[in-house]
Amino acid sequence: MSSAAQRLRAAVVGTGAIVTGAHLSALRAHADEVELVAAVDVAAERLDAFRATAGQEVAGYPDMAEMLERERPDLVLIGTPPSLHREQAVAALRAGAWVLCEKPLCLSLAEYDEIAAAEGADGPYVATVFQHRYGSGAVHARDLLASGALGRPLVAHCQTTWYRDTAYYSVPWRGRWATEGGGPTMGHGIHQMDLLLHLLGDWTEVRAMAGRLVHDVESEDVSTALVRFASGAMATVVNSVLSPDEVSRIRIDCSDATVELTHLYGHHNDDWVYTPAPHAVDDTERVRAWRTPADDLPSSHTAQLTGLLAAMRAGVRPPGSGHDARRTLEFAAALYKAAFTGLPVRAGEIVPGDPYYAAMHGDHPDWAPRATAKESR
Questions:
Q1: What is the C-alpha separation between 219 and 75, in angstroms, rounded?
Q2: Which H helix or E strand runs over 100?
Q3: From CA 48, how far away is CA 39, in angstroms rounded?
Q4: Whose CA is closest to 46, among 60, 35, 58?
Q5: What residue spans in the chain does CATH classification 3.40.50.720 cover?
Q6: CA-CA 20 to 30 A from 268: which of 41, 259, 290, 322?
């Protein structure tokens, strides 16, 4: 930008680790386009520490409404616990600010549709943090898959097998439907599941299982699913917080090649491996094109913010919003419904009036919050 006066004004809501780390780093990387002007947190010590870390004139507020009224930011970045996201996203939209919100954007499809209704026809819009879409390796893989360069997608695997101990769940809002929205399906595996959908497109059917095998929590600590895509491709999905050997992995077997991503919390180009089918091994130029993206941009909040700021300048819907973001949340809801009912769930099935539209647990007596479950018996 030609002058600081033309920079967009940004505010952060919540000043915990993800905001102090990833979001602040992203804002600093785009300092020529956006200026951090305010931060909101109910914890005064945490807010003061964040403002000191930011190292610039950042106004501090204990209340989001006051901040929105006084600062009038163009962009609000939300990093609070999930149960607060819906209310905060809607408040920011109504104040005229665009929103970038940590996952999950909200706790149900009903909440998502409430947020979407608060968006303007031409903005402001809400985008969900799904940073794994935005590394150059993911962009390259999606282009190859969409163009047919790897042949027809046939079989896929999506794995988020992480480890969380009992101390992790001592944080009061974790492991509870009303505050976290679910277990590893919503809070951990949603990143890889979103990337799988980003690469393969619309899903049509889900069959699933979920378990509470170790942790004394309301939600699951492991889930598995079988998925059919509109293309005909079929996939397996595993989400776990019980796995000492932690890994995040996506593998897609196409008719001409296998593409595989193996990482943990973020990826570079080298984390993507392309294996040609036997009939394609001798096609040297084609195989080289698979393996050599032009740039090596790691997946990150910084990469996602690049696209969001470009969309704001152009006045268009940003990536990670609208249909794409809802599709991922609907997939999570379908996984829970399939797991808890034992029945296949098809895309578009969960609509107002379906208990899984209002809550991921669907008021199922074995899975709903204990008070709710007792009332439903």
A1: 33
A2: strand 98-101
A3: 10
A4: 60
A5: 4-131+302-316
A6: 322
**Can you give the pLDDT at residue 373?**
42
Structure tokens at 65: 């409404």
CATH architecture assignment, domain 132-299: 2-Layer Sandwich (3.30)
Beta strand pairing status for 126-128 and 98-101? parallel
Which pLDDT score is estimated for 371? 55
Which residue is it, tokens 């006051």? 66
Q: How far apart are the first and last CA of the chain?
A: 61
The CA distance from 223 to 132, in Å, is: 21
* Whether CATH 1.20.58.340 fits 4-131+302-316: no
- Burial level of 292, CB count in 10 A (0-12/13-18/19+)? exposed
Please list the residue range(s) of the chain that carry CATH number 3.30.360.10.
Answer: 132-299
How far, in Å, CA of 161 to CA of 159, rounded?
A: 6
The SS3 of residue 213 is coil
Residues of the chain with pLDDT under 70: 1-5, 281, 371-377
pTM above 0.90, yes or no: yes
- Cα torsion at 319, 237, 281, 136 (round to 10°)? 20
Sign of the alpha-carbon torsion through 292, 156, 202, 334? negative
Instruction: State the Cα–Cα distance between residues 105 and 79, nearest whole angstrom.
Output: 10
CA distance 47 to 243: 34
Tell me the pLDDT of the chain averaged across its residues: 94
Q: Strand 234-240 to strand 222-229: parallel, antiparallel, or no bridges (unpaired)?
A: antiparallel
Please name the residues in contact with 178: beta carbons below 8 A apart, sequence gap of 6 or more: 83, 107, 369
Residues 6+ apart with CB under 8 A from 151: 254, 255, 256, 257, 277
pLDDT number for residue 375: 42
What are 107's two structure tokens?
Answer: 């706790």
69's tokens: 């009224």
pLDDT at residue 92, rounded to an integer:
98
Distance between alpha carbon 153 and the CA centroid of its chain, in Å? 23
